[in-house]
Amino acid sequence: MVATVSPTRRPPGPPPGLIGGNALEFRKGPVQFLMENSRLYGDVVAYRLLSYEFWQLNHPEDIREILLGQAHKVEKAPIYKQMLSKYLGNGLLNSDGAFWRRQRSLVAPAFHHRRVNTYADLMVQYTLDMIEGWREQRAIDIYEAMTQLTLYIVVKTLFNTDIRGQAAEIGDLTATLQELVSSEQNSPLRLPDWVPTPANRAKRHSIERLHAIPLEVIRERRTSGEDHGDLLSMLLSARGENGEAMSDEEIMYEALTIFLAGHDTTANAMTWAWYLLAQHPEVKARLHRTVDEALGGRPATLEDLPRLKYVEMIVKEVLRLYPPSFSVARRTLEPVTLRDGWVIPPDMNVIVSQYVVQHDARWFAEPERFDPERFSPENEEKIGKYTYFPFIYGPRVCVGNQFAMMEAILIVATIAQRYDMVLRDTQPVPMRALLTLNPAHGIEMVLTPR
After folding, report:
1. Average confidence score pLDDT of the chain
2. Could you give the number of structural domains in the chain?
3. Which residues make Cβ contacts (< 8 Å) with residue 61, sequence separation at least 6?
4. What is the pTM of this model?
C-alpha cells in the first residue's frame, strides 16, 4: 500500500548547524556527506546548505522522475548557475528552457556518431605523440599527463586548434576555477567579487585568461572566414530564428563549456583507470593480452573498437567507481511526485548522486570492488537501467558521451600496448570532490616499456 505523505512534510536528515546549516559537513567531504545521508536516512533526505534547502534522492526510481519522467518540472539549481555563470556565462552547462534547447541543437551535430568516429585516428596519434615523449622518463605524474592529453584532443578535434604550447597555463587555470567554485559554493560567508582579496584576484585573473584564450581563436577564425567543418565553424555559422549570428562572447562561453567539460572529466576517468589497474595485476594482465591480440603491435583504429570489448568493460567499471561528475542538482518549478507518496514542493533544490547510487549494495554486489566483469555482455544486461548513469540520462544527457567513451577506450588501449605502469607510492590516493571527482594530488607511475 502506498503511503500518503503531506507535501509540506520534511524528509528526515542530518541536524543543521547554527551557521550554514549542513554546509560545514558538506564542505569537509561532499561525497562522504551524500553517502552518509543515504546510509542513515534512507532514500529521501532533507538538509540545508547555507540558505538553500535540499532534498537528496537516493533511489533510482525517484531519480528517474527528476532526470527523465518529470524533467520538464525542474531546472538547473540556482546555487550552481550563479557560481558557474562568472566563468561559463549562459553556456550549455548553465542555461535552461528555450535558450538551452537552441544551444543544444547547435552543439549536438559535432557529437553525432558519424562525426565522432572521424576523431579516432587523431585521438590515437596524440596519445602516441605523448608516449614518444616518455622514452627518456622513468616515471610520470599520470594525472598531469592525462589532463594535458585530453586537453590537446578536445581542442584539436572540436576547434581544429593546437594549443600544446598553452596547455600548462590552461591546466593551471581550470584547476584554479574548480577550487574557486567549490570554495564559493560551500562558504557560509562570501565577500563581493570587487573586494581585493587574494582569492578574488586569483578569480579575476582566471576568468580573464580563460576567456581570452578561446576569444583569440574565435576572432582569428572569424577573420579568416575558413570553414573547417568543426564545432567552432558550426557555431560561427549558426543563425537564430531572427537570422542573427552568435556574438563572439556567446561562442566563447559555449566553446569554454565544451572545452572544460570535454577534457577534465575524461582526464579524471583515465587517471583513476591507471590507479585501479596498478592495484589489480590480474585485470591489467588481461588488458595487455586483449590489446596485443586485437592490435598485433599496430596503432588502434576505429575498426578495432569491437575487438577491444574488455577495454570498454574496464572503462565502464572505472566510471561506476569514480564517476567524474559525482552529483547533479536541480530546482523544482512545480510539485514533483515520487514513489511512496513523497511530493517535492516547488522551488526546492534537489540533489542526486551518481556516486551514491553506483556504490549502493542494493544495485551492485560488493560495490567497492573493482570488477570489470560487471560489464561483460551477459552481466551488463542485469544492471538496472537507472542504477548506472555516469553521463546522467534524460533530456540533459551528456552531449559528448560517445566522444568520451571512444576517447577513453583508445587511450587505454594505446598506452597499455606500449607500457606497463606501477604505482611509485602504494598509499591510497584520496578523492577531492570539486566540480569533478579529482585525485587529491598527483599520482606518480613508474614506466616499463613492454
Report:
1. 89
2. 1
3. 338, 339, 386
4. 0.91
